[in-house]
Amino acid sequence: MSYHEGSRAAIAPTSGWRARINGKKDAVIGLKPLAFSLSRIENLMHKVSFDPQKMVGEIITNTSMMDLNMLEPTLRIFRDVMESGLAVSPYLKVETLGNQAKIISACSITVSGVFLKAGVPVRPKGGGVIEIIDREPVRFTDMLMYWATTIDPIDVLISQELTSVLEMMQTGSGRILGNLQEVPMLAGERIEERLEVLAEAGFAGVLDLGDPNMNVLGVSVERDHVGISLVGGTNIVAAAMSRGIRIETESINSLTDIGEMTHIEDLV
């Protein structure tokens, strides 16, 4: 039984291990710590100032670049994915740079930053590909742990074209991007309260909120912790790329004031 075809306990694919091995080599050659990806994520989480009730403050964002003449079709695909519930937020920031367009979109790690701001210690675990069957999340089929790579896992998985976001939207079954976070089980009520507030502000995307000490979509969590699986903020990018649109994307790379962003309905 290969890792790629494995059970819930064996979810890391061969390609995932290669990516991690390359990440380790890069870390050694560049003299950077192995936990670079996790450290960068945690630093950004601590800088999140977003207040979902007042709709003010900065969120963590992803950046996508494309040819300017592909901006409108890209935004239409982004809108469809957002309306299907496979995105974190409907807010975008669009800029033009010569013959290039830049789209800044919400990253799901923003949710972790909001938890942290509410006094809940959050531990980002990893990013991966989640199998959906009949609109129900089943398992992580591929996963990269944040502590094990200097490259953002979602960027790696997008480049390997492992998703089928549009197919999932059309048929109810497919593979989408997502991530996994861990929080202390005693913070359960506070987490649920924050998730409700975020949902009212248009920030959603919880795929699975686990029980204490129980696996989430086939991935184990630490003792006395609860796992939370969230949709990946770059599902919108994966969907557009599957339509042949060339996009260069960088996940979890910046902070953006929510006041500078516009609802997708006002863009398309």
Folded structure, characterized:
The protein is an alpha+beta fold. It has a single domain, classed as mj0159-like (Alpha-Beta Plaits). It is built from eight helices and ten strands. The strands form two sheets. Strands 9-1-3-2-10 form a five-stranded antiparallel sheet. A five-stranded antiparallel sheet has the order 5-4-6-8-7. 46% of the residues are buried. The model is unreliable at 1-35 (pLDDT under 50).
Q: Quickly count the helices.
A: 8
What string gives the helices and strands in order?
HHEHEEHEEHHEHEEHEE
Identify the overall geometry. Answer: globular
How are the strands of the largest sheet arranged? 9-1-3-2-10
Class of secondary structure makeup = alpha+beta
Into which percentage range does the β-strand content fall?
Answer: 25-35%
Strand tally: 10
- The CATH superfamily name is mj0159-like
Helix content: 25-40%
Total domain count: 1
At CATH level 2, the architecture is 2-Layer Sandwich
Overall pLDDT level: 85
The gyration radius over C-alpha positions equals 17 Å
Which parts are unreliable, with pLDDT below 50 for 5 consecutive residues or more?
Answer: 1-35
CATH topology call: Alpha-Beta Plaits
What's this, in brief?
Helix content is 32%, strand content 29%. It has 268 residues and is α+β, with helices and mostly antiparallel strands. The strands form two sheets. A five-stranded antiparallel β-sheet has the order 9-1-3-2-10. A five-stranded antiparallel β-sheet has the order 5-4-6-8-7.
Using brief descriptors, characterize the structure shown.
268 residues, alpha+beta, Alpha-Beta Plaits, 5-stranded antiparallel beta sheet, 32% helix, globular, disordered N terminus
